[in-house]
């Protein structure tokens, strides 16, 4: 079963985990690593590397594309021999909720994972709308 790892700046990942708990209940397969004041990038990198080493199937969600947590996780994953570690940047709650349901409550085969991630990202993009523009027909 895939583990979900929420990474990001400050307490944002804990906030996302709290929202997921509220929406979906307790889930022992969701973990958080936060880049907080006083933590070096090297310490953060070591924590991510250890988590990935300890879990063979992981979806990593980073808060900002191009931010330090994203860059650190991307480097570790790209250098990893595992084909079952995935990094999804940006953390819309809709994406995390959909992927959590699919990877935690459905049986996802390893070869299907990349396709399911891409399909979910595409579906969730369609859920984002600017209601002011939509209501004015612009």
Radius of gyration: 16 Å
Can you count the helices? 6
Q: Helices and strands, in N-to-C order?
A: EHEHEHEHHH
Biggest sheet statistics: 4 strands, parallel
Strand residues, percent: 15-25%
* CATH fold-level assignment: Rossmann fold
Number of DSSP E strands: 4
Oligomerization state of this entry?
Answer: single chain
The outline comes out as globular
- The CATH level-2 architecture is identified as 3-Layer(aba) Sandwich
Distance between the termini: 44 Å
Return the CATH class: Alpha Beta
Topology, element by element:
Layout: E1 3-9, H1 12-24, E2 30-35, H2 41-54, E3 58-62, H3 68-79, E4 85-89, H4 93-105, H5 113-125, H6 131-136
Parallel strand pairs: 1-2, 1-3, 3-4
Helix pairs in contact: 2-3, 4-5
Domain PTS EIIA type-4: 1-128
InterPro entries: Bacterial_PTS_sugar_comp, PTS_EIIA_man-typ, PTS_EIIA_man-typ_sf
Protein name: PTS EIIA type-4 domain-containing protein
Any overview of this molecule?
This protein is 51% helix and 17% strand. It has helices spanning 12-24, 41-54, 68-79, 93-105, 113-125, 131-136; strands spanning 3-9, 30-35, 58-62, 85-89. It has a single domain, classed as Phosphotransferase system, mannose-type IIA component (Rossmann fold, 3-Layer(aba) Sandwich). The radius of gyration is 16 Å and the shape is globular. The N and C termini lie far apart (44 Å). It has a 4-stranded parallel β-sheet with strand order 2-1-3-4, with helices on both faces. It has 138 residues and is an alpha/beta fold.
């Amino acid at each position: 079963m895939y583990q979900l790892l929420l990474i990001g700046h400050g307490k944002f990942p804990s906030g996302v985990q709290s929202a997921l708990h509220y929406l979906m209940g307790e889930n022992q397969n969701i973990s958080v690593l936060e880049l907080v004041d006083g933590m070096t990038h090297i310490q953060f990198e070591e924590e991510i590397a250890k988590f990935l080493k300890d879990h063979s199937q992981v979806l990593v969600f980073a808060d900002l594309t191009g931010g330090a947590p994203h860059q650190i996780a991307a480097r570790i994953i790209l250098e990893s021999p595992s084909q079952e570690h995935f990094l999804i940047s940006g953390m819309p709650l809709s994406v995390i909720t959909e992927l959590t349901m699919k990877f935690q409550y459905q049986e996802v085969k390893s070869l299907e994972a990349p396709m399911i991630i891409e399909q979910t990202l595409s579906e969730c993009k369609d859920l984002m709308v600017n209601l002011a523009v939509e209501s004015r027909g612009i």
